[in-house]
Amino acid sequence: MKQEGVHMNKLWIVIKEVYRKNVKTWAFLAMVLGPLIPLIIGGAVGWFMQSEETKQLSNPIGIVTSDDQFEEYAKQIKDTNTYTFYASTKEAVEQLKQGDINGVLTFSLEDGRAVFTKLDDGPDVNTAPLVQMVNDYQYEEGLKELGIQVEEIQQLKQHPILIEEKRLVIDKEGNIEEKADNPFDAKIGVAFILGFSLFFFIVTYTSLIAQEVAQEKGSRVMEIILSSMKAKDYYFGKIVGILLVILTQVMTYIIFGFIAYGVVTKVFDFDLPTELIDFNSLISISLAQIGILGVLGILLYVSLAAVLGSLVSRTEDVQKIIQPAVFTAVIGFYIGMYTLSAPNSPIVKVASLIPFWSPIIMPYRIALEMVSPTTVWLSVLGTLALTGLSLWIGSEFYKSNVLTTTDKGLVTTIKRSFQTWKSERSTD
């Protein structure tokens, strides 16, 4: 019992050390803030542009016209501008000069001409509402001349014919059923965020853990560490420590997301789509299955990266040895993007069942509701099996890998590591 306590204590020491060493660095801070800074800058630019656009849409405008009916018509217009009527252009321009108005609209239906005047260095004014106003007035006056009641035209406009879209599905018995119309945009957005996030974490932390393992091996510190604790404990301690680092980064983004949502809703008067914040809607896209696939996918690539990092003798060789793993993830990401346009493609169907790609591709198929629950769980089981195999291989060969140093290439390193592993097992 006492030995088991010492065993667990050493494991937690490794976990805490790996976590502390990675979190308390400028590199981690840069890695966390890297995706956030463009979002913050983009949000600030968006806020500035919206403010400027609002200013352009909300202006005091002077109107000069000899058409009394147009004056009455303009007074009934409800838009963001405020309109003041002047008897002459000279009077209106004088008010423009003093800054009481931002522009002058001179309109004559008889001449069919409208002129908007503003100061060259004055505030920008969006003339779209003015164009809409004079054209609508001209249109209604033309209808009156033809003897058509404007009210009748307005009634026709209020009852447009809309095209209703229906989707049919064929069940296992060959029966055709109408599929309910579900709001896919929000679901696809969630799936894209999850798929891209997983890809981002895989690429980032695959390189990180492989680099860390290679550095320890190159410094020969592993000989001292493994003489005082089991290699399996150290291996799993590293894996858990890295997972906690990832969890910290994810929680940071979640907290930032809540803060950003609060700011955006107040500043921009914006609400998320109801289907996105509806709990039942989120459950319907099987977030649990996507979450399981995500955790298994990260575990798979991180454990594989630890094994690959333990095989190199020089840190400069790390990027070369992990390149196949990263390239595999990149292929999965692009197939995932392709899924949005061709969810029933044979390439997508097959690739989503391959464990290396399932965590990245399957969220898109789940969101589009183009996959059965059985297929999803098959992909989960396949990813679980390969992840378990990767963890077992990593824990079994970690000690022999890190203690094997040679400059004769990867194949020679693997052979020597395997021989060391066999001799240790025969000794045990």
Count of strand segments: 6
What's the arrangement of strands in the largest beta sheet?
2-1-3-4
Low-confidence stretches: 279-285
From the alpha-carbon coordinates, what is the Rg to the nearest angstrom?
33 Å
* SSE class: alpha/beta
Largest sheet: 4 strands, mixed
Compact overview of the structure:
The protein has 428 residues and is an alpha/beta fold.
Question: What does this molecule look like?
Answer:
By secondary structure, this protein is of the alpha/beta class. The protein has two domains: 60-156, D-Maltodextrin-Binding Protein, domain 2 (3-Layer(aba) Sandwich); 184-420, no CATH class. The chain has 17 helices and six strands. The protein has helices spanning 2-23, 26-57, 68-75, 89-98, 128-145, 150-157, 184-218, 221-226, 231-267, 274-277, 279-284, 287-311, 318-339, 346-351, 358-367, 373-402, 410-427; strands at 60-65, 82-86, 103-108, 113-117, 167-170, 176-179. Strands 2-1-3-4 form a four-stranded mixed sheet, with helices on both faces. A two-stranded antiparallel sheet has the order 5-6. Strand 3 (103-108) and strand 4 (113-117) form a beta hairpin. Helix 7 (184-218) packs antiparallel against helix 15 (358-367). The longest helix has 37 residues, at 231-267. The chain is elongated. The two termini are 22 Å apart. This is ABC transporter permease. The chain crosses the membrane at residues 26-49, 188-214, 235-263, 283-309, 321-340, 376-394. Residues 26-394 form the ABC-2 type transporter transmembrane domain. GO terms for molecular function: ABC-type transporter activity.
